[in-house]
Design goal:
The structure holds two protein chains of two kinds. Chain A is an all-alpha fold. Chain A folds into two domains: about 100 residues, no CATH class; about 45 residues, no CATH class. Chain B has one domain. In chain B, about 75% of the residues lie in helices and about 0% in strands. Chain B has 24 helices and two strands. Chain B has a two-stranded antiparallel ribbon with strand order 1-2. The chains are: A mainly alpha, B mainly alpha.
Chain lengths: ~170, ~550
């Protein structure tokens, strides 16, 4: 089975460019990368069909091995349709991102950032136990801002309660 | 054979429904009626398929009259029909839930009316993937369900959904491209994409090519199934979607990936070549997933991480490659689809009732709505694997398979499985304690604003009853309750279900029923007798 070297080189170049592009943060480039990857894959499928032969239209005189393998082309057709749909959808999403955020970039997940910014998780720290046992530091937090005496108490307790995070869940809102 | 030849209807009916609901896009009442009717019909049909697979064994349907090695086949065996029934039951419940939500919110305007057709196409894609006996048709099934899921994920087009949708779409497309490359290479190596034919021809390839193809397929499916090093997209993207959509994604989409992995391992590449990496991946999936869940305070995100973690159990059972392990994995998939979906549905209800899905803000829900508490408690305990429930039975099956295999890595998996189960219990118990048991006032320290709303409602005695009705519509609670009952039924009927999954596992390991159903009874299956014995674990 001979292979078409030009097609293979083009395929490799498409894969390389595609992978480079999907690693970008700009959505348009990611989309271009995905399109290149899809087309490179189509070439790969074409290459699996072997050498180019006659169109697979049956005639009695042609020997079986003279035909081109039709199956990869059917597969390519399907995959082109699918990547077309996905590309159209991605364009819609990119447009929507532009409308919403006025930028063509992948956005960070805020909740993820928040969890990542939380200091190391501690089950003890996270449980309700401190709320019941230690009076002063948490009294500062729960009653702070409600009553004047509590605020005084909070102001007094401040130096001693530095070890207690004002947001015990790490949830800075 | 006659019933099994109705199998394509499992794909055709939802697609027909999608077309009809698309035509009826301005008549939401008719849309609801059509989609629920057609999905119920599909479910009934799939129950028939399950019965025929149970009685008559594996059957294949050739599409378009092209004979198997060339044309597309659909294969109904015990595993695929069980998956079909469970997935359709779950998607029907979610559909009812979603229509309930739409009716309660009065959302009858444009963006939501696209929900029904898209949802039905998703179901069709899932059915197609489960039934497909052809690698490329499996890819098409994946693409149908993925494209529908892109639309559902970004439903409404709000900022967070678009952001999550971008991640989801890009990751899915990359995994699809990998799958397509794998298909191209498989075709290049063997000249066929029919799975039964591949099962015979892949065995004749040399080891290097085989391993390459095997790894490529597993990576492609691993991304879809969210197996550990490839799982990070899932908790990032799932929680932002609307509650019913997250529920159906969590229940079905990853399981389609698991299903494809099971087929790859048992049918295409039998033997033990990649079992060790799979076991390591399973262990890491379980542990990393559940540790991620412990760090979360948002229930949806927490559940997404438990979803990843419990995918590890299924891979665990698969990697044992024994009849016991595979049977337990099949059972676990069926159990987990139901339980995970019902938990996400309950979370949607919690969000409606409590105004938030963050445990930092919730509190006192058990008193506010005992029904909700019950609906959360049962699947929650089931997920954690508390003894009477099906989660426990599935895990025991897996641990049994692990002990039976007896290698150090298998024991590590057994220990990892137990630890994961306990940590799941911890994660669920934390949600329970905070959202349901503590007084609402105790929850106020991070953000009192959201909790002030339900507290204000409680203080007004007259308004309380009315509010409860609108906050928790009967259809939503009813469909969730139905799914929870289904989860309990899996426990009650665990005996028959386990014997079904046991038979499915034996048939899959034997390979002969599948291959002979597709290619004809006379086809010699080289590994058949060896497959049954070398698989080991005939208990």
């Amino acid at each position: 089975m001979s292979v078409n070297l030009t097609l293979l080189i083009v395929m490799g170049a498409l894969y390389a460019c595609g992978i480079y592009l999907i690693l970008e943060r700009s959505l348009t480039r990611v989309l271009l990368g995905l399109m290149l990857l899809a087309n490179a894959t189509n070439l790969l499928i074409l290459a699996t069909g072997g050498y180019a032969g006659l169109a697979p239209l049956f005639s009695k005189d042609t020997a079986a091995q003279d035909y081109n393998d039709p199956l990869p082309q059917a597969l390519i057709l399907t995959s082109i349709v699918i990547s077309f749909a996905v590309t159209a959808f991605m364009l819609g999403i990119i447009y929507r991102t532009w409308l919403l955020a006025r930028q063509d970039e992948i956005q960070d997940d805020m909740e993820d950032r928040r969890v990542a910014a939380t200091p190391s998780f501690d089950a003890e720290d996270d449980a309700e136990v401190p709320a019941e046992t230690s009076e002063f530091p948490l009294a500062t937090v729960t009653t702070g801002g409600r009553e004047m005496p509590a605020e005084h108490a909070a102001a007094e307790e401040k130096p001693g309660s530095l070890n207690v995070d004002p947001n015990p869940e790490g949830g800075g809102k | 054979m006659t019933i099994a030849s109705l199998a394509p209807l499992a794909v055709v009916l939802p697609i027909l429904g999608a077309a009809l609901t698309f035509l009826l896009i301005r008549h939401s009442r008719a849309q609801r009626a059509v989609s629920i009717t057609l999905l119920s019909l599909t479910l009934a049909l799939e129950c028939l398929l399950l019965a025929s697979a149970w009685n008559g064994g594996t059957a294949a349907v050739t599409l378009g009259g092209w004979l198997p090695p060339f044309g597309i086949v659909m294969v109904v065996d015990q595993f695929s029909s069980l998956m079909l029934v469970v997935s359709s039951a779950v998607s029907l419940a979610v559909l009812v839930y979603a229509t309930g939500q739409g009716m309660a919110d009065g959302d009858e305007d444009a963006p939501v009316s696209i929900f029904h057709p898209t949802y039905l196409i998703l179901v069709a894609g899932v059915s197609n993937a489960f039934l497909s006996g052809d690698l490329f048709n499996l890819y098409v099934g994946f693409e149908i369900l993925l494209t529908a899921s892109y639309v559902l994920m970004t439903l409404g087009g709000t900022g967070p959904r678009i952001r999550a949708g971008v991640t989801y779409v890009v990751v899915s497309v990359v995994s699809s491209v990998l799958f397509l490359i794998a298909i191209a290479m498989v075709y290049g190596a063997t000249g066929t994409v029919n799975m039964a034919d591949l099962a015979l021809k892949l065995g004749e390839l040399d080891q290097g090519t085989k391993t390459l193809l095997h790894v490529m397929l597993l990576v492609a499916f691993g991304i879809k199934a969210a197996v550990f090093p490839l799982s990070f997209w899932l908790p990032d993207s799932y929680p932002t979607a609307p509650a019913p959509v997250t529920a159906v994604f969590a229940g079905l989409l990853t399981k389609v990936g698991v299903y494809a992995m099971v087929r790859t391992e048992t049918l295409l590449f039998p033997g033990d070549t990649l079992n060790t990496p799979l076991m390591v991946a399973a262990l890491l999936t379980m542990l990393v997933g559940i540790l991620g869940a412990l760090a979360q305070s948002d229930i949806k995100r927490l559940l997404s991480f438990t979803l990843v973690s419990h995918i590890g159990y299924m891979v665990f059972g698969l990697a044992m490659s024994s009849a016991v392990g595979l049977a337990a994995a099949v059972f676990y998939v069926a159990h987990h689809i139901t339980i995970q979906t019902s938990l996400f549905l309950v979370t949607g209800l919690i969000e409606r009732r409590g105004g938030s899905s963050s445990v930092d803000r919730l509190g006192g829900l058990a008193k506010l709505s005992p029904m909700l508490a019950l609906l959360f408690f049962i699947p929650g305990m089931n997920l954690a694997g508390i003894p009477p429930f099906s989660g426990f039975l599935g895990k025991v099956g897996l641990l049994q398979a692990g002990v039976e295999l007896g290698t150090p890595l298998a024991y590590a998996l057994v220990i990892g499985g137990v630890v994961t189960s306990l940590l799941t219990l911890l994660a669920i118990a934390r949600v329970w304690n905070r959202a349901f048991w503590r007084r609402p006032t105790d929850a106020e320290h991070p953000d009192p604003v959201l909790l002030a709303t339900p507290a204000g409602r409680v203080s007004g005695p007259g308004a309380k009853v009315n509010n409860t009705v609108t906050l928790l519509p009967r259809t939503m609670v009813g469909s969730t309750a139905g799914l929870v009952v289904l989860g309990v039924a899996l426990t009650v009927f665990a005996g028959p279900l386990f014997s079904l999954s046991d038979r499915a596992a034996r048939d899959m390991l034997d390979r002969a029923p599948y291959i002979q159903a597709v290619l004809g009874d006379a086809t010699p299956v080289p590994g058949s007798a060896a497959g049954a014995t070398a698989g080991g674990g005939n208990r």
